[in-house]
Amino acid sequence: MFKLLKILRLFSLPVLLFLFSSTHAQIRIASPYSRFGLGDISRNNNAWNGSMGELGISIRSPYHVNMNNPASYTAFDSTSFVFEGGFISNFGTLKSAVQSDSRNYTSIGSLLFGLPVTKWWRTSIGLVPFSDVGYNVSSIQVVQGVGTVDRLYTGSGGINRFFWGNGFKIFKNLSIGINASYLFGTFTNESVAIFPDSIYFINFKVDNNTTVHDLYFDYGIQYTIPLTTNLHMTLGAVYSATTKLAARTDVLSQTFFLGADGVEHPRDTITQVTDIHGKIIIPWSTGFGISVEKTDRWMAGADFHWQNWKNYSSFGLSDSLVNSYQINVGAEFLPDPNNYYNYLKRIRYRIGFLYDNSYLDLRGHQLDEYAITAGLAMPLRGNKTALNFGIQVGTRGTTSSGLIQENYFRFIVGFSIYERWFIKRKYY
Predict the structure, then answer these.
(1) Dihedral, CA atoms, 341, 343, 346, 348, nearest 10 degrees?
(2) Share of the chain above pLDDT 70, in %
(3) Global confidence as pTM
């Protein structure tokens, strides 16, 4: 087992970085609602957070990187190195009032590292998705005087987030932290109108490619209150200021003929504008959390997060976004960490729930999301290095007013490697 972990430690980083960068160029999501704003915003959860209702503001662990609150990095052991990574598989059904369709995909969820710097300073680096765009929607209408109009909307791409996080222990029980992130990536939105019944209207389409590259910061604080022996309560808060991201967009609109084989044949270019520079404004957000933990036995907590999405804009234009909030509840239980005769008692069992009142307000409905979560951590050596498994079963949206409801089953597989690297050897 020790040799296996050494091999993983040496070769997993370059392999996973390659896989992560490869998935950036592919569709990592299948949701019609990713057409709005920056796409589907990632909640930056690994198997640990994801199986506990995506809890993260007040929890701390020496075995996991919790980028939801950078103040939590001070929980890293002073002599250890933490490495985490994982995959997410989503099995979903898109359902309208008249039909349904299945969409499945798998992507890399996160690559995270954490290590000590000094007695009061811990640091972390990682690569995670920030937002994902992936949809393919068709709408067929019959317009008087025109005939059938087939409108197609497709999108792909997304924004990645490379971050450097730092946590500082101010006092014994008080920590603060900051994540400095570099956001980068390109997403494409395409709109097509086809007129199969008319000889007077020509098919046309508009391609919009947007590239983002800028810095983004978020901050956190945690305060731990001892209650009894091995029992403590942690209060946490996070904040991110309004950020103006530098962006560039290219727009191409053209008419085309559609061949019998379905292949598009360009006719005329109506508009072609390249290298348009502007700003995408991500509004400020804040969140609060509380958790109670008995060391190496159990933990339970709850979070509340709010964001001012009503002030979002892209190149000076607003979108169908409203203010949003999210509630997360989760718990973890470890029966007996010292029972080496019964493996099941050394497994960490997790459960949670989340409610997301999203930023999308469409046709008079502010879309919301519900999900129940569960998971476990199976120790590979001792109780610290583990394979983590999580599931999320949820629903988002509604079939009312011609909208689409998403039902999903999400399976998360991750590993957390905990190694002692910073021990000074003494020889006698």
Answers:
(1) -170
(2) 89
(3) 0.87
